[in-house]
Amino acid sequence: MNPGGLPRENFYGAYTKDDLPEDLNYGGKTVTILVDAAHADGVRKFAVLTDDAACNTSDHCPVMIEWETDRFPFSKKGAEMKPMKPLYESRKASFERAVYRPNSNVIAPPVAAVFATGALGERMKQEPPQTVFFRVFPDLTVKDGAGVPVGTLYDCLDSTRSAVPVLYLDDLSVSQALVSFVWENALGDAALCVPIALAKQAEELFLRVPHLRRILDCRAVGVGADWFAVSERAWSVGAVGLLISADQTDWDTLNLLHERGHSIWCDAAGQEAAAIFAGADGILTDSPARVYGILGALPEHSRTRRYRLLAHKGYQDEYRLPENSIRAVVRGAELGLDGAEIDIKLTRDGIPFVIHNPTTKAMLTGEERVVETLTAAELEARERTDFPGERTDRLEKMLAAVSCRPHYPVFVEFKPAQKFYHIERMAHAVREILARTGTERGVVVLGEADEMRCLANLLPGQPKLAGVWEKPQPPETPAEATELLWRLWSRVADAPAGLCVEDVMVNRLFAEEAALRGIRVVVWTRSWYSSPSLWENDGERSDEGFLDGYSATISDHADKYLHIPLRLEAAGDRVAAVMRDGTSHAVPEAEWFALPDGTRIPGVRVALPTGKYFYLFGQAI
Q1: CB neighbours (10 Å) of residue 141?
Q2: Residue 424, SS3 per DSSP
Q3: What backbone torsions phi and psi does residue 549 show, to the nearest 5 degrees?
Q4: pLDDT tens for residues 64-114?
Q5: Which DSSP helix (H) or strand (E) runs through 291?
Q6: Alpha carbon of 269 to those of 54, 247, 283, 289, 479: distances in Å?
Q7: pLDDT by residue (tens digit) across 152-211?
Q8: Which of 175, 176, 311, 597 could form a disulfide with 332 if both were Cys (CB 3.0 to 4.6 A apart)?
Q9: pTM
Q10: How many other β-carbons are positioned within 10 Å of the β-carbon of residue 14?
Q11: Helices H, strands E: what count in the chain?
Q12: What is the signed CA dihedral for 275, 276, 279, 285, rounded to 10 degrees?
């Protein structure tokens, strides 16, 4: 039975009750259907509940039925879109890109160029970029940076199959023609870039081609602008990528935007070295060879992109501090970690608490109960069994405890008992807490991929990270890596977010393909094969997080990496390492590397716990 011909997807909303036919049952349980035909995005949504709405045991928690259909997402106004095809097929040649890689052991930003003609175009053929920005006009023609016509969009895409395309639009009158072009030509592996001033107007376009990644051009934003407000605006339209100018590329700006979950492209013509060593995620240049020359001067196992270290359930200090506690989260901030991941569940009276397990068993005193069946007072009355005398903390109390600590976001993972029913209640509760406490700047929303649409609707300005908990074999070729990336990205395409994956399913190939597309990837390196997670199981994989090129790692063993500097600073020939706790010290063993333009950069070889290493750099002087 398929009531109303509803599409297969996840549905959320404030529901009204309608009875289903008497003969419908699910697993032997009678169910009722809840429908809201006037949801905010215009899509009819439904969920089903057992008769026992109180959820007294886990067996009687709400269940969800999804109906099979071949229709792919509706637009905001409810208009049905064309069926989604395997969009990578038309550009399959790009999977086996023969792009120039001067040193495969250097983790550096991908190189992008503005499509050009004439002498510059010929030079680009000799210096192939990994990404190409096309400026698209209303008649679907492309012009280069000097305004010289290049050709039709189709011909330009066809002639640059070895590069990932970014379609730059500064005139939205092209929208209807572009939408038709995208669907008719099954264009999937591409991004849309629009000026930030047009972000709101472009929202409808984004929704009509939801699978295309979104970038906002922020080069017109003044130096010293409120980048938090810029980030909020970008997340409200699902733009994970930002394009900024070289003048805006300083450590503090990039650090803020990275902690807010953005991938940063830098328009760095003539200032490529400064952008690379500031930690940009992508370089837009008029000379790819200039960038390749810089990267070719670096030693193997170099890393220029910033790597963020997050504490799993707070910094537990080898399990001497209680997980998901204020003490553990605050201690991570004191040590200078880049953030903490915590888990939340909702009590029966709608209060978010920081707790992971679905029931009180093995965690809290008293008889076993499903957490959602307890009131806030009942949950607070129970002591922890692992740390007697300690109790479960409210989310509001925890956020207040770390709100005074800048650059330390809390990754709040939603753990609903039954996601299709509780997720919206949880999002409403979190939104009220953020508004009441003014802690919006310090929260990243983490949920499963199929929860992102609801979270994007209710928490639009918050950074988002989508958990995709699969365990396929790691890819062995660029084609396999791109196909895996596309499959994961398609799960969050209509509510874009960074990807949070288990490290057993990804590797360097996957990280490179994600970086080429500006998709931030956070890996979970804790071992699922032992409890608690043991270093002897996690160590090798944790080191790979640094060496493979991911954006960040959520680790049970963050203490193993506290010796790694945040950055290097140079004054003359003296080099200092700035540490995570804010201190700095001289680095006499620092090396100097000569770049093709005659400048030098300081670098230091950093040892990892299992004996591997990578090179960390300062700014060129």
Answers
A1: 17
A2: helix
A3: 100, 25
A4: 333 222 222 222 223 233 333 333 344 433 433 334 444 445 667 777 777
A5: helix 288-296
A6: 61, 11, 9, 12, 31
A7: 998 888 877 778 899 999 999 999 999 989 888 878 789 999 999 999 999 999 988 888
A8: 311
A9: 0.83
A10: 13
A11: 16, 31
A12: 60
Per the listing, tokens 């090396």 go with: 591
How many C-beta atoms lie closer than 10 Å to residue 318's C-beta? 12
| Site of tokens 């958990």 | 467
Count CA atoms closer than 13 A to 116's CA, side-chain side: 22
Strands 16-18, 29-36: pairing is antiparallel
Residues 6+ apart with CB under 8 A from 614: 107, 301, 302, 303, 546, 547, 605, 606, 608
What the block records as the tokens of 7 is: 């599409």
Which pair of tokens denotes residue 48?
Answer: 């089903």
Contacts of 167 (CB under 8 A, 6+ apart): 134, 136, 153, 178, 190, 191, 192, 193, 212
Predicted local distance difference test score (pLDDT) of residue 535: 74
CA gap 83, 70 in Å, rounded: 7
The letter for the amino acid at 334 is E
Chain segment 544-554, per-residue pLDDT in tens? 877 888 899 99
Q: State the pairing for strand pair 567-571/574-578.
A: antiparallel
What Cα–Cα distance (Å) separates residue 224 from each residue in 220, 231, 244, 250, 361?
A: 12, 14, 13, 10, 51
Closest CA to 513 of 493, 487, 544: 487
